[in-house]
Structure formats: C-alpha cells, structure tokens
Structure prediction request, 246 residues.
Amino acid sequence: MASRPVGCAGLPQRQLPADGPIHIHIAEQIKEVLDCEAWSGQRPVDWLLDYAPVDARWCLVHATHVTPQETQRMAASGAVVGLCPITEANLGDGLFPALDYLNAGGRFGVGSDSNVLIDAAEELRLLEYGQRLARRTRNVMAMEAGRSTGGDLYRAGLAGGAQAVGADGGGLRVGALADIVSLDASHPALIGRQGDALLDSFVFAARRDVIDGVWRAGRKVVSNGRHHRRDEIAARYRQALEKVLA
Prediction:
C-alpha cells in the first residue's frame, strides 16, 4: 500500500519562502517517477501540483517524464520549467515534451545542472535538435512557420530564465539590470548576418568564442572573450579539484 502523502503545509520545518524563486528538481528519470508512484500513488508533477502552491515563482527543473495531463497542468500553473538538455543528454534521461508544453502556454529557461559543459547556446541548440530527432521534423521550437528558430528559442529562454531567478527580463531600458552579452561581429559564423539571423547563427553555427563581451549589472566582466578574473578562478578550481582527487 502506498504511503499517505503529506502536503507542503504539513512540513513546518520545510516552510516555503513568502517571496522569491523556488526551484525543485522533478521527474528527471523514470526510476524517480516509479518511486514516487510507489510512495504516494501519484506521479511527481501531479503530486506537487496537488500539494504545493505552485505558481510563477516556481521553477520545475527537468520535468522530463510527464504525461500530457501533467504538461497541461504545469503550463497552467504559471511555473517555468528549467531544462538542462546537455545534462539530460549526458545522463540519458530523455526528452522533455517541449512543443506540447509551449503550445499549452508554458515557459522555459535553460541551465547547466551538472556543469559537464557550461554553454547557453549549446543548451538551446541541443533542446531544438532533440525535438527534431524525436519528431523527425525541422524548426520545432519556432513559434510560427517562417520565423527564426534561434530567435524564438533565445527570447523564450531569456524570458523564462529571468522568471526562474526572479530577475527583471525587460531588456535594454532605463531602470533594468544591465546584463548584456555582445558578440564578435567579425566571427566567421556571423558574417553577413543581421537581425534574428545573428541569433540563428549564435545558437546553431557558432561556438563560445563568438562571445566578445559580458556585462553583469552594468559591470564588464568579460572582454575579448576572456573573463577578467580567469587566471584566478582557474587556479582556485585547480586547487579544489586536486584536493578532492588527493
């Protein structure tokens, strides 16, 4: 007999914050789904939506193995799904039903999770290519026929990512955070490209060396593709890894 589930309200030691983002890893692998069903009699996403006050503050990370009903419920909740296509591919987790979720009005962001590779464009690229392989068609994540797939992917990921971390994703305007990425217009992948074609090339044709500069909250931290504290960070990483492996 399955254990009786306890709602979030019944766990005072795990009280949820009154405001700010809430992230939870969920339904990443089949065994997790089976274990949750054995414990509660429900699938993970259905259980969460029944027992927790899921709303736009929530980010459901992975949500790889969901039913059509769960997909619809996630989209209706206002939560954002945090997809990690590189990690999910590396671990052989499976593919999220992205098109069905988008068609239901769902929002997504991307993240690195296991940090096997940190590359935002690669996350978006693999997200689209996984959907193409599963559906055996092209330009799956473009919002309409003839639109830029890279542009739609980038803008959707940007909006969903901002929601997931509780940030202002309002773009370049007075009062917004000056979080900016600049691309090297002389890079071979960008030659002759303008408008959304630049985003298509950034997502599908270029590599990380196309990134020229990065500003965080108005402070430039990357110039000519190199982080200002790269040597210091690399040295600290090397020391930490050597300590772990010793």
